[in-house]
From TrEMBL:
Residues 130-179 form the HTH luxR-type domain. Keywords: Sigma factor, Transcription, Transcription regulation. PANTHER family: RNA POLYMERASE ECF-TYPE SIGMA FACTO, RNA POLYMERASE SIGMA-70 FACTOR ECF SUBFAMILY. It comes from Sunxiuqinia elliptica. This is RNA polymerase sigma-70 factor (ECF subfamily). GO terms for molecular function: DNA binding; sigma factor activity. It holds the Pfam family Sigma70_r4_2. SUPFAM superfamilies: Sigma2 domain of RNA polymerase sigma factors, Sigma3 and sigma4 domains of RNA polymerase sigma factors. CDD domains: LuxR_C_like.
Length: 185
């Protein structure tokens, strides 16, 4: 149930809906893009699901159920959109059946959740280190990063190395989770 822009979970825990939106929007949009290649349509679908969620309060056991609701709703909205547009053969590839659809759905859910976890950890890095890493991920050279931020190239290399070390340490558990998921298939 939502009250004062908060998602209420059983047990009294509350989550701010704006924080939830900002932390999951990019991942949910990416998830939708696996069904529909048009990014603007994907963003509209994710926003529609958030609006429907906001307008019709629900009570969930935990945050995982909230996320599951969003993944399922987004997938259903995407499939409805595909049917409504009388898709061509290209889009029929996105209409997966039976086991293949389930594998695709859960595989994408794991990929998006891993992306969200990595993104959260990157956001926890110190400001300059985070800036350096984000620019590295955008394929900037060390020289370009140094010029853009106004630091020495050696400092860029140091921040990059430290950021990678921190992320490796923090994300060790993510790798274990992924391996256990693969074994369960």
């Amino acid at each position: 149930m939502i009250s004062s822009n908060r998602i209420r979970l059983k047990g009294g825990e509350q989550v701010d809906i704006q924080d939830f939106f900002h932390s999951t929007y990019a991942g949910f949009t990416s998830f939708a893009s696996k069904y529909i290649p048009d990014l603007a349509v994907c963003e509209d679908i994710v926003q529609d699901v958030f609006l429907a969620f906001y307008e019709k309060p629900r009570i969930f056991e935990n945050l995982y159920q909230v996320k599951s609701f969003f993944y399922t709703s987004i997938r259903n909205h995407c499939l409805d959109h595909i049917k409504h547009q009388k898709v061509t053969n290209k889009y029929k590839d996105y209409q997966l059946k039976g086991e293949a659809e389930v594998d695709f759905f859960f595989g994408e859910m794991v990929r998006v959740e891993a992306f969200n976890i990595v993104y959260e950890e990157v956001n926890k890095l110190p400001k300059v280190m985070k800036q350096v890493l984000l620019l590295v991920l955008k394929d900037y050279s060390n020289k370009e990063i140094a010029e853009k931020i106004g630091i020495a190239i050696s400092t860029v290399k140091t921040h990059k190395a430290r950021a990678m070390k921190i992320l490796r340490e923090r994300l060790d558990n993510l790798l274990l989770l992924f391996i256990s998921w693969i074994r369960g298939k």
